[in-house]
Amino acid sequence: MLSADASRRIGVTYTLATIGPLAREVRTVGQVTVDETRVKSISPKIDGWVERLDLNYLGMPVRAGDPLLAIYSPMLVTVQEELLLAKKLAMDVVGGTSEATRSAAELLSSARRRLAYWDIPQSDIDRIEQTGEVLRTLTLRSPVSGVVVEKSVFAGQKIMAGDAIFRIADLSIVWVEGEVFEQDLSLVRMGRTVTAEFEALPGEQVTGRIAYLYPTLNPDTRTARVRVEMRNPGLRLKPGMYATFRFSAGNRLNVLSVPRSAILSTGARSLVFVKRADGQLEPRDVTLGVAGVDRVEVRSGLEAGETVVASATFLVDAESNLGSALGGMGNMPGMDMSPAGAGAKAPARPPGTPSQKDTGTTAPDAMAEMPGMKPPPPARRR
Fold this sequence. Notes:
By secondary structure, this protein is of the alpha+beta class. It contains 7 helices and 20 strands. A 6-stranded antiparallel barrel has the order 2-11-14-13-12-15. Strands 3-10-8-5 form a 4-stranded antiparallel β-sheet, with no helix packed on it.
């Protein structure tokens, strides 16, 4: 029994178990990651030495066509010389036989292709042909726009063909990946709209869509990973950020439900405190169904119209446990919990008799009343 004063003291409120529509919602925590389909690894196709490094720190923004580095390579020098020789030969055989003209054109085209296959820009190839000069270093340029997320090269370093020296990620679209519990997997649909909130963007909601549900389940946590794709204007969403995202899974009609705060979960079972007609609070086991935005479905253990504790359920449980503990202690020997004056009065002491407090001893009669204690035998006279 919880009195009105005690209810007000611990903040207990009541509500009714009702039947009605229940808006289903899945909520989870995720983390921002890069879109793996928008990451480009930059690897030179030739050996050489880095004479100048233009992309020289992590996080540096880059656009397609921007210079990455200037490289000195003996292979590039050789092909430039072949290009100029083929250009001169093509000019010398003008007006000659058709076979000689065709051979010179093929040599010139071959030298141009080799430079292009090594990612030398067409503008640099045209400049070599126009000036007739062999350049000691040539510039490699970025094929994509984005942000440098990995860098493994420094000025003066020798690089080998195939070495991954940069990774550039386009962050205009990012992924938010989170874990969804096994019982909620049936509510995940590709393309469903998701709303996310970030600590770095207080009061702001960012929308995206479910792009992929991973095909495996974590056997320890009983969750599956879900991927949400979000646009990232201004690059405000940064890889590594935490997000809380949720998505609606439609409504269910004619569902018996109570507020989320009315449920007391112990780990092994779920309880609600039902207020009976006599005013007592009865803890009752319930079986829960799907969870909505602020209410939870009750499949069994409760009837529509019953009054339940809507808030402070943990404090009600603590109050009940405390009362049970004190009641049990009151039955222990020597642990009379009744207030002073409620029991019988102690017998009067004859005048002139010293009290136990004065003598510092325990009276034989009092000792005899204690469990397992008998009074000492009377002293024998000689």
